[in-house]
Design brief:
The complex is a heterodimer of chains A (486) and B (114). The two termini of chain A are 46 Å apart. In chain A, 43% of the residues lie in helices and 14% in strands. Chain A is of the alpha/beta class and 486 residues long. In chain A, the strands form 4 sheets. Chain A has a 9-stranded mixed sheet. Chain B is of the alpha+beta class and 114 residues long. Chain B is 46% helix and 24% strand. Chain B is built from 3 helices and 4 strands. In chain B, helix 1 crosses helix 2. Classes of the chains: A alpha/beta (486), B alpha+beta (114). Chain A binds chain B through residues 6-14, 25, 41, 66-67, 70-71, 73-75, 77-78, 81, 409-410, 413, 437, 439-440, and chain B through 32, 35-36, 38-39, 75, 79-80, 82-83, 86-87, 89-91, 93-94, 96-98, 100-102, 107-108, 111.
């Protein structure tokens, strides 16, 4: 039996002045001192040393039994890429472009709440549902978007009932989500959501003064009071676990993220996704007023994350969802669905969006480009094109082939690429091609800096922080994680 | 004794170049290292002779410390050269891992043919 180590494939980077970070195809990572790294590369790593054993157990080196080792790595690789076989789970339906609000960062260019010609008709909705159910995925999530989808109540109701009827034939697992601003939602509508298991995703940017900076009615007045009243009503009718909120970081709340976190805890939410602005629609038009540099966002994200960790250590379970997602990718071999950060990109293969007229796009941002006059990403129309034409066409094949970070310039040698992904629609908008240009785009800089923060924490390996992280990943409470419950 | 500065030719505060021996550094490594600097520099890679290429740097921002940046470039170049060597050594294993993940292969047979 040979103990001489042979190298398996991995990416590496100088992490700081003392250590290298190595990440391999199965998603395992390891920090190595400069000396150990050089010994590894030069074949001089002492047999049986701690680094030798760690590298071998995490599949960075092998001695013999290569077929069995590759079998394990491939199984982990396949598990991490499981989202590819779930083609396509998330189907977003823009059932109206009308909206009560005129939010400063709106990325969909919503229309007035009494505008004509921007509603999806029940006929179009039925055709969309017919197309959705041709997806081979055994699970389907139908997400109602707008505008404000409750403003086209007839189509919303029809869609839910029709999808359930159609599903008697397909017998898929269906989830419904409505993305609503909650401003005008009423009891009857909430009762319908309860009856049909429809989950609510709403927006809350912080306490009243922060929320009302950007989330405004068309009259210019703030929406906070109406939203809070209706969130509580939804809690009562649907249950707290059926209502989630998302925040958008703008220049107004970026320096007050602790206030936003406190508001989420006060409202009884179990976590927060500290979400940066996306460069679409009004967020671009109003960039000078509400935008900020990536570095400013990351600096405040790190402070907010530290606060959240402390909140957990003080006894309140509260998750930062983006961190939890990235840590799940880093610390487990499991697949995590997040269409905005996948390789290949989730655009089209994990999520698709259907415009009010039946046009199909791989992502909401792609639909937004079409609204701005560029229809490059239109995959087809549910009346004119078959499912096979829409989801098997040249466009989606090109999106997939040009959004694999494993072969993209700069990404291919990035140590974080196993956990990262690409955004071909954003690349196209910024550079005119799907591959885009790194290292200076905001998407790449932001993600690299966020990974840096997390890997610094992982390297520090503070017992308290790691307990919090594992509690998020596992879904267990901190006490359960620590074995403190009976 | 030579220092790394001996290999960097400063033309002006914002322009400099470095000449590299392509028998030591593969052109792919030079391209990859250069790509990582395109946010800060305009870069041209030009053949000097059969064995040498010159990498010309022109800073986009006048405040950059070009000599220090080219030293970082040299470090990055060594990393990319190492990545190429690793790819040469075990790139086929990487291909096998991915292929086997999506369409199971007879690994013992495939490994014999490496």
């Amino acid at each position: 039996m040979s103990e001489k180590p042979h190298l398996l494939p991995f990416q590496f980077s100088r992490f700081d002045s003392n250590d290298y970070l190595l990440v391999n195809e199965s998603g395992e990572y390891i920090f190595l001192s400069n000396d150990d790294f050089h010994n590894l590369i030069n074949g001089n790593l002492p047999f049986g040393s701690p680094s030798y054993c760690d590298l071998k157990s995490r599949h960075f080196i092998y001695t013999d039994h290569l077929p069995e080792t590759l079998e394990m790595i491939s199984a982990k690789y396949r598990t991490r890429k499981r989202f590819i076989s779930d083609f396509t789970v998330l189907h977003m339906m823009v059932i109206t472009l009308k909206c009560t609000n005129n939010c400063l960062y709106c990325q969909v260019s919503a229309e007035d709440d009494d505008a004509k010609g921007f509603d999806m008709s029940p006929d179009v909705a039925s055709r969309v549902i017919d197309t959705i159910f041709k997806s081979p995925s055994s699970s389907i999530k139908i997400e109602f978007q707008g505008g404000e989808p409750t403003l086209n109540w007839e189509t919303l109701k029809h869609t839910v009932l029709y999808a359930k009827k159609i599903n008697r034939k397909y017998n898929k697992h269906i989830d419904f989500v409505i993305c609503t601003n909650m401003v005008k939602i009423n009891t009857q509508q909430l009762m319908f959501f309860k009856e049909h298991g429809i989950h609510i995703s709403t927006s809350l940017d912080g306490p009243r003064d922060l929320h009302n900076k950007n989330r405004l009615l068309r009259s210019g007045s703030g929406t906070y009071d109406a939203v809070i009243k209706n969130i509580y009503k939804a809690f009562d009718i649907l249950g707290r676990d059926q209502v989630n909120a998302l925040m958008t970081t703008t220049t107004d709340n970026i320096d007050h993220l602790n206030d936003v976190i406190e508001e989420y805890i006060r409202m009884g939410f179990s976590g927060i996704f500290i979400r940066p602005l996306n460069p679409y629609g009004l967020a671009v038009t109003n960039a000078e007023q509400i935008g900020y540099h990536v570095e400013h966002f990351v600096e405040n994200f790190e402070k907010a994350l530290d606060s959240i960790i402390q909140i957990n250590l003080n006894g309140t379970r509260f998750v930062e969802y983006f961190t939890s997602l990235l840590l799940t990718r880093i610390m487990t071999p499991f697949s995590t669905g997040f269409v905005d950060l996948q390789s290949p990109s989730g655009a089209g293969i994990s999520g698709a969006i259907y415009d009010h007229n039946g046009d199909v796009f791989p992502a909401d941002e792609a639909r937004m480009l079409a609204r701005m006059g560029n229809r490059y990403f239109c995959m087809g129309n549910v009346f004119k094109d078959s499912y096979e034409d829409i989801f098997g066409g040249i466009l989606l094949r090109e999106i997939v082939s040009k959004s694999c970070v494993e072969i993209m310039p700069y990404c291919s040698s990035c140590v974080y690429r196993t956990y990262c992904g690409s955004d071909p629609v954003r690349n196209y908008r910024e550079t005119g091609n799907l591959i885009g240009k790194r290292p200076n785009n905001d998407f790449c800089r932001k993600n690299k800096l966020l990974f840096d923060i997390l890997f610094k924490k992982l390297k520090r390996n503070d017992a308290d922080e790691m307990d919090v992280f594992w509690s998020w990943i596992s879904g267990l409470s901190l006490k359960e994680m620590r074995g403190e419950t009976i | 004794m030579k220092s790394i500065n001996n290999f960097i030719y400063d033309i002006s505060p914002t322009q400099a170049n470095i000449t590299l021996d392509i028998s030591i550094y593969a052109i792919e490594a030079i391209h990859a290292a250069s790509y990582a600097f395109i946010d800060r520099y305009h870069i041209i890679i030009e053949p000097e002779s059969d064995k040498l290429v010159m990498v010309l740097f022109e800073a986009k921002d006048k405040t950059r410390r070009i000599t220090e940046d080219i030293k970082d470039f040299a470090t990055s170049l060594i990393d990319h050269q190492l990545r190429l060597q690793l790819e040469k050594t075990n790139g086929k294993i990487r291909d096998l891992i991915v292929a086997h993940a999506f369409s199971p292969l007879d690994l013992k047979k495939e490994i014999k043919s490496l």
